[in-house]
Amino acid sequence: MAADFSTPYLRHVLCEEFSTPSTPTRTISSGPKDIYPAPLTPRNIRARIIRVKDVRIVCVRIAFYPATRSYTSDDMTMNDHEKQTHGAQFSNTNTDDDSHSQTPSPNSTNLGPPPDGGFTAWLHVLLMHLVFFNSWGFANSFGIFQQYYTVSLSQSSSSIAWIGSVQVFLLLFVGVIGGRASDAGHFHLVFRIGVFLQLLGVFMTSLCRTYWQVFLAHGVCVGLGNGLTFCPALSVLSTYFERNRTFAVGIAAAGGASGGLVYPAAVHVLLGEVGFAWTLRIVGFIMLAAHVPSILLFKPRLPPYTAGAFVEWTAFKESAYTFFTMGMFLSFWGLYFAFFYLGTFARDRLGATTETSVNLLMILNGIGIAGRIIPNLIGDRVTGPFNIVTPFSFAACLLIYCWAAVDSIHGMYAFAIIYGFIAAALQALFPATATTLTTDPEKTGVRLGMILSVVGFACLTGPPISGALIQAGGGSYLYAQIFAGTSIALSVLCLAASRVSKAGWGWVKI
């Protein structure tokens, strides 16, 4: 099909010769009179490639004339048909340079911004809630196992604490592996391996009779499974939200509180009814049922991203990222002291019954449902997560110090309610804030996994150190309380430095 250059639209934009921009030419005249007598300047000329069906015109110049010129209506007016036909042609044209710059790289994505809502996005919030239920919910329930293992395995509190701390450490540490593999397109494989290891660890714990067997099954195997499900799933969820990310993560993180209610209650009731072995097996079946929807429906939004190092060391050159990582390490160094030792403190120091100890643990976890949602909602709508994570850390440190003065069961209930809310807020704000430090969504899994791994060392050493301090104090919890409170107090300084490094001293929602 031959190209038609007779329309006024094409006549006034095509040049008569193909010279360089430094020697502009007059345009084609439509008749005996020259309607564009003024010479063209280089800044008013831009090269274009126009493709008209099978005809290609190379190095054609489109002239953008000064607005002071006047044009005849015949030359400058297009009817609707011409606008549709030729306008579409020009909208699809490009220079060689433009074409090159717009060629997508193998790893680039043009999916647009996160949906920030809709059925699929909120479905993944529900699925992530179930992942939290089986990972953090089970880990936060270790207090009930701490009491049982101390008696049944005849070990010190510090030795038993290593089981729970290793579990939490691996949950966080293998985030580097899980996050990187998820970014590379292996989310489903990694997630299913994690589910298998979780269930294997729980069912094998039901067969254990000695300390080292429980350590390997409950601590190592379950911890690995938790890590391979939690971090990849959180990485995927964060790509579905931007403005509502903190709120969405808060709802998902409430699964940790849900699990912290269900698992201690189930273990407490079932131990007296069916014994330890079948208690763990029933817990395993609960885990399996909660994992089925996630296995079937979890879907990464972004295509695989394979470029870059396994660990992005350059992230630590960003002061905001480095200070935040240090702050979270110090915060979690003391944060889990109450989750591990609240029940034993009530039993050993206040003479509480086992049922009362379990109730305190359930309150500590259960109030976390509100603690994970309300602060995150405030962070999304009003302040931003960065602006409230530091005040909550300061409140947590004050509460740990106040715990040293509690000498009654009623005081312990009050402490469990307030501290449970604040600690849950920190647990939920931690990943929500960490994802804001990553500007490239394709690297969310790697950077988040790096922070989780560093924080994992705090969770690994914090509870055993507290147990050793209790033992060194002859059963007194004062030294351990001072250690936990001071570590969280130091985290406040680091988190404040991170916030200032990222946004300065002025108020800004961040």
From TrEMBL:
The chain crosses the membrane at residues 119-139, 159-177, 189-207, 213-234, 246-266, 278-298, 319-344, 356-374, 386-406, 412-434, 446-465, 477-497. The keyword Ribonucleoprotein does not apply. Residues 101-111 have a biased composition (Polar residues). One of its GO terms (molecular function) is transmembrane transporter activity. Pfam families: MFS_1. Its main location: membrane. Residues 75-112 are annotated as: Disordered. InterPro entries: MFS, MFS_trans_sf, Proton-linked_MCT. It is a multi-pass membrane protein. One of its GO terms (cellular component) is membrane. Keywords: Membrane, Transmembrane, Transmembrane helix. This is Similar to MFS monocarboxylate transporter. It comes from Botryotinia fuckeliana (strain T4) (Noble rot fungus).
